[in-house]
Design goal:
This protein is 37% helix and 11% strand. With 466 residues, it is of the alpha/beta class. Helix 1 runs antiparallel to helix 16, helix 15 packs across helix 16 and helix 18 packs antiparallel against helix 19.
């Protein structure tokens, strides 16, 4: 996730839904799979000989909160600010937070990691976090340690994890270079009151029928407009669905490629904007988040579990989320968005502790189940998620008590990240910016907007052609 998250909402036991067929099938698959070896994750690590300071590089407080709340024995310096650090045994934990805006986080990593092996012991970066959009930039270098070199058996210990989370951080030689505690399958998140008013019901099955494919989605957009609602806050809400279903990476043999799926997003979005079905605001802008409130008159958003519980203003009493007014359904097309991976920095003097953090937060099923229950995060542990999907006592308060984990599980098993590249973040940002001008009429044609995109990408990556 590339934003500063504010935890909000929580779980509820008041309102649930019966497990779906997908959840039942997932449970059966889990029973047939070889369970992960959690023995090392359950043990107390011997930190004798480790460094005095564990230095962590990150862009927001998400991982800091997970470490503070779920690593056994962690002593926080400030209960209200996880990035203030703390202690694990006698080792001091320090966070360096550099926001992702304007590529600042990556620029910081690029400055400190190459010299890490020669840095003073207390200044060495031990652990840093990456996102899917640029993970390969670091994975395919010596800046990251192979997870196996930390003493972790990647086959036996990580076998409960979703395969796509490993594919994203596997280098060209087949070495796993990072591990994530979360999975990020996405769903369509809909306004229950709007669904009742316009569709006659807020039942997930009823809503799904109205958004089951893109043609039906667009037809429903017209119905919603007639009732005074935008189907999405902005055209960018659907972008990640299309960009996650491409048949080609952004760059092939040094040449920029605009995939057919991306072009379909452009065509659909232009029609929707022109018809008044959606807006053109940037993600994370006030225009985008206005739909978190009833007066915003927005029908749906697209996102993973982290968007639902950490980004939709559930801590604001006037928001839809605070009232449990959102629901979840599959939507027109499966997709994923985001995720955070833990990487061990080459040169760390705390390899044993880094390995233990990875084991505790990404292998230990009990700890990971606790993350689901406390934080409503979708964790990277199939048995944990499949059990929670079938748990009739679990529900997400933001979703009005709905247990949507079965559809998340189904989506996670289908995620394919074989088309990612190290250029994804820059290309995605430049493309959306160029198309915004086209949608708003500032650029007369798609072809002109495309040229603006090429110019922007060439400035970021001069080595590329088109």
């Amino acid at each position: 996730m590339g934003l500063s998250l504010v935890a909000c909402g929580g779980s509820t036991t008041e309102e649930t839904e019966a497990p779906t067929e997908a959840a039942t099938e997932a449970e059966q698959e889990a029973e047939e799979a070889t369970p992960a070896d959690e023995s090392a994750a359950k043990e107390d690590a011997d930190l004798t000989g480790e460094g005095k300071v564990l230095n962590i590089q990150c862009w927001n407080d998400e991982f800091a909160r997970r470490l503070k709340d779920h690593y056994p024995g962690y002593q926080a310096n400030d209960p209200d600010d996880a990035t203030a650090g703390g202690k694990i045994g006698d080792i001091e934990v320090k966070f360096t937070v550099t926001p992702s805006d304007d590529n600042a986080y990556q620029n910081n990593l690029d400055a400190v990691l190459p010299a890490n092996a020669d840095a003073a012991d207390d200044d060495k970066v031990d652990l840093f976090l990456v996102e899917a959009d640029y993970a390969l930039k670091y994975v395919n270098t010596d800046l990251t340690m192979p997870i196996a070199d930390l003493g972790i058996d990647v086959n036996s210990e990580l076998s409960n994890q979703y395969q796509y989370t490993k594919d994203i951080v596997t280098d060209a030689e087949g070495n796993l270079k990072g591990v994530s505690w979360q999975g990020c399958p996405g769903v369509l998140i809909y306004n229950r009151d709007a669904a009742k008013e316009v569709l006659g019901s807020d039942d997930p099955a009823t809503v799904q029928e109205a958004v089951k494919d893109w043609d039906t989605f667009n037809a429903t957009a017209k119905t919603l407009k007639d009732a005074g609602y935008k189907i999405t806050a902005t055209a960018n809400d659907t972008y990640r669905v299309f960009s996650d279903n491409v048949s080609s990476p952004w760059v092939v043999d040094g040449k920029i490629v605009v995939d057919d799926s991306i072009k379909k997003w452009v065509d659909m979005s232009k029609e929707q904007v022109d018809a008044g079905y959606t807006g053109t605001g940037d993600l994370w802008s006030d225009d985008w988040s206005a739909g978190f409130y009833p007066d915003g008159k927005v029908f749906c958003y697209f996102g993973p579990a982290w968007l639902i519980d950490f980004c939709m203003s559930a801590d604001d009493e006037t928001s839809i989320a605070h009232a449990g007014g959102w629901g979840a359904t599959t939507g027109p097309q499966g997709f994923s968005w985001g995720g955070t991976w833990i990487c061990a920095a080459n040169g760390t003097d705390n390899a044993t502790l880094v390995a233990d953090i990875i084991r505790k937060l990404t292998v230990d099923t009990e700890i990971m189940t606790g993350i689901v229950k406390q934080d409503n995060d979708f964790v990277n542990n199939k048995p944990a998620m499949e059990a929670m999907a079938a748990d009739a006592s679990y529900g997400d308060a933001v979703l009005g008590g709905q247990n949507a984990l079965a559809m998340f599980c189904e989506g996670a098993n289908k995620i394919d990240k074989s088309k990612i590249s190290e250029y994804d973040q820059g290309c995605n940002e430049s493309f959306q910016a160029a198309m915004k001008d086209y949608f708003e009429g500032n650029t007369a044609t798609y072809e002109e907007a495309l040229e603006a995109f090429y110019t922007s990408v060439s400035e970021k990556y001069p080595e590329l052609t088109h």
